[in-house]
Design goal:
Largest sheet: 4 strands, mixed
Structural class: alpha+beta
Strand order of the largest sheet: 5-4-6-7
Order of helices and strands: HEHEEEHEEEHHEHHEE
CATH superfamily of the largest domain: RNA 3'-terminal phosphate cyclase, insert domain
Oligomer: single chain
Distance between the termini: 31 Å
CATH topology of the largest domain: Dihydrodipicolinate Reductase, domain 2
Helix content: 25-40%
CATH class of the largest domain: Alpha Beta
Radius of gyration: 21 Å
Amino acid sequence: MLVFQALFPFLLFASNAESNPIELVILGGTHTSLSPSFDYIDQVLLPILENRFGILVGRTLTRRGWSVGPTNRGRVAFTIQPVKSGEGLRLKDPQNQYLDSKNYVVAQIDATIIVPSTLHKEYEDALHRDLQVLFPGVQVNTRKLEESGHESRAYILLVAISGSGLRWGCDILYAIPKKRKGGNSKKTISPIEDASRKVSKGLFEEVSNKSQCDSHAQDQLVVFQAVAQGPTAFPRWQQPVGGLQELMRGFNLEDPSQMRKENTGEPFGEGSLHAKTARWVVAELLPSVLFYNKGLAVEGAGISFGGSLSSN
């Protein structure tokens, strides 16, 4: 999936006169440590890109590739619709990219559970129980319930979706430990309960601050903000009513004087170290991209097919 992330922005601008879709097949890991899973890309990142930028990507998982349990090579096929020749990437609805607080309410949670089939019910019950405690009354759907292919493999993804279509994801990939002998079972939490509590709490923390996206999506969106036309921002807190203009403290294309421009000489800004580093790398490669207010507000380079830059 890291290979996909590296290729995707380039293929997005690899248009021709007919603007034909691009077919991409990748062999490798789909569920590996220190990498987004196929399910996260499928259910969180790509829907965000479609909803915000109109980016269309078909995807088909033929087989999963694991780094836990016996390692194997997975296979994923993507159909990417590139940006039309001569056009750039832009927000579908820039005036309403910041919604008021009522649109941050979680309407449903989708659960993907990929574990040994003998443990399906235990994982599903634990997740539904923990989520109802943290998100009382919210509908929880088991989107996928699949066999992981080995007794030690376990992967869980939770995706919270608001009524307005905002998405936050949290997942966990781990090797199921063998049962321990002896000990005080009353004080020992089972691996299933432990995993359920961790991923449920993680999702709750992602959405509790009424953010635009989860922490992992934020750093993955930086490159798309950088190549887009116009200002974009995906803050990790609830912004006041007034949206983009309030977040940017009066910023507009004609008068950015009230914006605090960031020093891009090292990783910077709000969010995870991945997000900070992504901004720094972008600033090194595309000096025309401007970052303001802890890196949250981004004035993109406005790249279009042929490599032209709107401001450089």
